[in-house]
Write a structure and sequence with these properties.
Layout: E1 6-9, E2 26-30, E3 35-38, H1 53-75, E4 80-84, E5 88-93, E6 99-106, E7 109-112, H2 120-133, E8 143-146
Helix pairs in contact: 1-2
Length: 148
């Protein structure tokens, strides 16, 4: 078991606290000293230069899938030279009528080392295993689709 901690800090920077007026910018602090400027998504009056929680959620799913895939490849002695993903999260109303990230499409592009051959069926099995073993995917009910 392990614990993962984030400290979130916000302070009002506006005179008015009306919905259209108050600032959404805040800071995420992590135990390694990293600080990230965060805000609501621009659609919800957030600063577009900051990271928003929805983007961070999509990135977390993509990152976890990648790290799990790399672990599987390493255990199979299939050397990976590069991995890129264009992850897209879809926000819409869920079955309860509430806004939620209801689907995340991953579009991983993997470059294996010279001489490493992985056919489409084996690659799909590796992605399926990565999804099944991903800590983040196992923690959410959002549909996550891997488009290879």
């Amino acid at each position: 078991m392990s614990e993962h901690v984030a400290d979130i800090a916000w302070e009002r920077e506006t005179e008015s606290f009306a919905y259209d007026d108050y600032n959404r910018t805040h800071v995420w602090r992590f135990d390694n000293g990293l600080e990230i400027a965060a805000a609501a998504a621009p659609a919800y009056l957030g600063d577009p230069s900051c990271l928003d929680p929805e983007e961070a959620f999509v990135a977390s799913v993509s990152s976890c899938h990648m790290l799990t895939f790399l672990a599987i490849a390493a255990r199979k002695r299939l050397t990976v030279d590069a991995y890129e993903d264009h992850a897209v999260g879809r926000m819409e109303k869920n079955e309860d009528g509430r806004l939620a990230i209801t689907r995340i499409d991953l579009h991983p592009k993997i470059r294996f080392a010279d001489g490493v051959e992985v056919n489409a069926q084996a690659l799909d099995k590796m992605h399926h295993a990565a999804h099944e073993q991903c800590f983040i995917a196992n923690s959410v009910k959002t549909e996550i689709v891997v488009n290879t």
